[in-house]
């Protein structure tokens, strides 16, 4: 049986990054976009990174263009956007698919560990639910990534402990990270 440390992703320079390099660290894996209503979450992600990186947190930023084409541009353009607009210190990987036939194996694994459990409550949750019903009437019954900025939290032992939909309050993400640090 495979575990988190058995997977790799591709860095912007084309080299491979093994999850083994994160052994003993807390990892937040996020599929991101530069032109999405949730893109301002980069500010919160950077704040969490600054607060907890020296204590063992890594953020694995995987840009994805599968949701309404909201990640245009090259990998270097995505990186420039993130560093110039949000001062991100964590790197962005190469743009990758998180759903479908070409989905990263890492994402297939993450989704097998933590399935979709809903968008929660509030206006953003209602908006996402209404939009997804039009795209996929059965969206509630599969583990697929629903939109940009879905986050998976992995503990220091490689266990996928939480999945946060993009509508989740970033304070809840911060609190979950803090508990593992």
TrEMBL record:
CDD domains: GSH_Peroxidase. GO terms for molecular function: peroxidase activity. Gene3D superfamilies: Glutaredoxin. SUPFAM superfamilies: Thioredoxin-like. The active site is at 36. Keywords: Oxidoreductase, Peroxidase. Pfam families: GSHPx. It comes from the Bacteria. Belongs to the glutathione peroxidase family. PANTHER family: GLUTATHIONE PEROXIDASE. This is Glutathione peroxidase. It comes from Bilifractor porci.
């Amino acid at each position: 049986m495979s575990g988190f440390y058995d997977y790799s992703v591709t860095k912007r320079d084309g080299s491979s990054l093994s999850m083994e390099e994160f052994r003993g660290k807390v990892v937040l894996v996020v599929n991101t976009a530069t032109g999405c209503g949730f893109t301002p979450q980069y500010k919160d992600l950077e704040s969490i990174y600054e607060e907890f990186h020296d204590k063992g947190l890594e953020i694995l930023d995987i840009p994805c263009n599968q949701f309404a084409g909201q990640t245009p541009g090259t990998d270097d353009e995505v990186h420039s956007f993130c560093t110039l607009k949000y001062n991100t210190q964590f790197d962005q990987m190469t743009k990758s698919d998180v759903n479908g036939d070409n989905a990263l194996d890492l994402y297939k694994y993450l989704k097998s560990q933590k399935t979709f459990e809903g968008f929660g409550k509030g206006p953003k949750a209602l908006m996402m639910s209404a939009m997804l019903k039009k795209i996929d009437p059965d969206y509630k019954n599969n583990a697929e990534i629903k939109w940009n900025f879905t986050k998976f939290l992995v503990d220091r032992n490689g266990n996928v402990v939480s999945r946060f939909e993009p509508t989740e309050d970033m304070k809840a993400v911060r609190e979950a990270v803090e508990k593992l640090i």
